[in-house]
């Protein structure tokens, strides 16, 4: 019995430590931690394979089974697309293909790895430990921010005529993500009694001056204030409300959207607009499968420069060129459409829908307040990923790994194991 307990404690400590390394130290020590999220994915894959070989009973929701099937479907599409491109005379570096497969699936592999470990760890205890140290992390970040405001130690960039802050993070979006993560973890214990404290925590992310964070901030306030009323609304009506809300957000930030979808963005040679525009061209030309792993708008398509950019005559665009490809992987959805075609895009959208329904349906059927908070956090976390994915390949990054670990812990902690999704 003691051996089992020690084994569980080791796993739980590993999970907590991994989360904090990925959220707070990944950027500052990138040379040491650059592959840590892939290492966690490898560990999770080992757990899944071991459980499968030894016939360990793995209890998943129906939505999770659909998700795993759809992920396999995308993997098959990607490999078939690589093969089809090869037959057409287009050669993609094998390392780029393998690296891209790892990048694309690592967050989901980690999710299912933590789910498989649900009987070996106390997920609620892990969440309590995360809450304890996240609060400490928040106060430390605030101290760093105050010192930076006074002494200007870290880079500060002007946005909208105001200085934005990022501290020791490599980008303002990662700075705001740290506060978003702390907010989500502390939400579990403070939702009922300390909403003001949660809002206080989240407000520090505003120092990043990221438009995407402002959108998340607004949504988080709505969930905190009107979450219970929203969950009483029928699903179809709720989807209509979400659609209207998205249109409202699009109207408010229409200038930013024009930068992506207007022909002026293409004519001015703006890399993000060009990457988005040609993803549709690739989706049409290589219908319905796309060009395959490691070929378009992904990190490895730039590092092992893909044939696609030259084929479409965009290999001389600043940020997309072979000499400087720093903006190639700035977006997520163009990568999905370009590499996996319309079938892959549809499959990934269904995956996201299945996750959201898993969270929402469990939340709506839950009576226990704590369980409701688990699902609120899950829903907000997915919305955070979706908002960031509009101009960031976040689903293939360390931040997505962190969020999917959190999702898995929350689902593990959800006490009802009835099939509801």
Task: Output the keywords.
421 residues; mainly alpha; two-stranded antiparallel ribbon; 2% strand; disordered C terminus
Describe the protein:
The protein is built from 18 helices and two strands. With about 425 residues, the chain is mostly helical. The chain has a domain at about 1-115 and about 210-255 and about 330-415. Helix 7 packs antiparallel against helix 17 and helix 16 runs antiparallel to helix 17. The longest helix is centred in the last third of the chain and has 33 residues, at about 335-365. It is globular, with a radius of gyration of 21 Å. It starts with a helix and ends in an 8-residue tail after the last helix.
Shape: globular
Q: How many DSSP helices?
A: 18
Low-pLDDT residue intervals, each spanning 5 or more residues = 416-421
Order of helices and strands: HHHHHHEEHHHHHHHHHHHH
* Backbone CA Rg: 21 Å
- Tell me the helix content: over 70%
Task: Report the β-strand fraction as a percent range.
Answer: under 5%
Count of β-strands: 2
Largest sheet: 2 strands, antiparallel
Q: What is the subunit arrangement here?
A: single chain
- Helix-strand makeup class: mainly alpha
- Mean pLDDT across the residues is 86
Q: Strand order across the biggest sheet?
A: 1-2
End-to-end separation: 34 Å
């Amino acid at each position: 019995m003691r051996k089992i307990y020690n084994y569980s404690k080791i796993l739980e400590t590993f999970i907590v430590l991994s989360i904090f390394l990925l959220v707070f130290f990944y950027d500052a020590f990138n040379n040491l931690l650059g592959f840590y999220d892939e290492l966690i994915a490898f560990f999770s894959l080992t757990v899944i394979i071991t459980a499968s070989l030894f016939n360990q009973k793995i209890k998943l929701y129906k939505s999770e089974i659909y998700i795993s099937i759809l992920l396999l479907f995308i993997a098959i599409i990607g490999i078939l697309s690589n093969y089809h491109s090869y037959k057409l005379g287009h050669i993609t570096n094998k390392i780029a293909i393998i690296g891209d497969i790892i990048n694309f699936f690592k967050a989901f592999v980690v999710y299912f790895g933590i789910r498989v470990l649900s009987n070996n760890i106390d997920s609620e205890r892990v969440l309590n430990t995360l809450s304890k140290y996240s609060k400490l992390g928040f106060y430390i970040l605030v101290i760093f921010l105050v010192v930076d405001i006074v002494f200007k130690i870290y880079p500060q960039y002007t946005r909208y005529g105001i200085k934005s802050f990022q501290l020791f993070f490599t980008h303002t979006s990662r700075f705001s993500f740290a506060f978003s993560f702390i907010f989500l973890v502390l939400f579990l214990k403070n939702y009922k009694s300390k909403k003001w404290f949660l809002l206080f925590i989240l407000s520090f992310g505003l120092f990043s001056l990221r438009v995407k964070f402002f959108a998340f901030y607004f949504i988080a306030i709505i969930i905190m204030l009107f979450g219970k009323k929203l969950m009483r609304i029928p699903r179809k009506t709720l989807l209509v409300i979400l659609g209207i809300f998205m249109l409202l957000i699009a109207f408010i930030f229409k200038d930013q959207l024009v930068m992506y979808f207007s022909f002026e963005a293409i004519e001015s040679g703006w890399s993000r607009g060009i990457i988005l525009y040609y993803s549709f061209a690739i989706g049409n030309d290589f219908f319905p499968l796309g060009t395959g792993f490691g070929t378009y708008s992904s990190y490895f398509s730039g590092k092992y420069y893909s044939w696609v950019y030259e084929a479409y005559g965009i290999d001389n665009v600043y940020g997309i060129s072979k000499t400087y490809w720093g903006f190639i992987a700035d977006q997520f959805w163009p990568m999905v459409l370009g590499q996996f075609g319309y079938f892959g895009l549809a499959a990934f959208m269904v995956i996201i829908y299945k996750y959201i329904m898993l969270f929402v349906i469990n939340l709506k059927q839950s009576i226990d307040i704590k369980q409701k908070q688990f699902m609120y956090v899950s829903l907000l976390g997915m919305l955070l990923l979706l908002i960031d994915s509009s101009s960031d390949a976040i689903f293939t990054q360390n931040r997505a790994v962190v969020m999917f670990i959190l999702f898995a812990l929350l689902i593990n902690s959800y006490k009802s194991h009835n099939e509801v999704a």
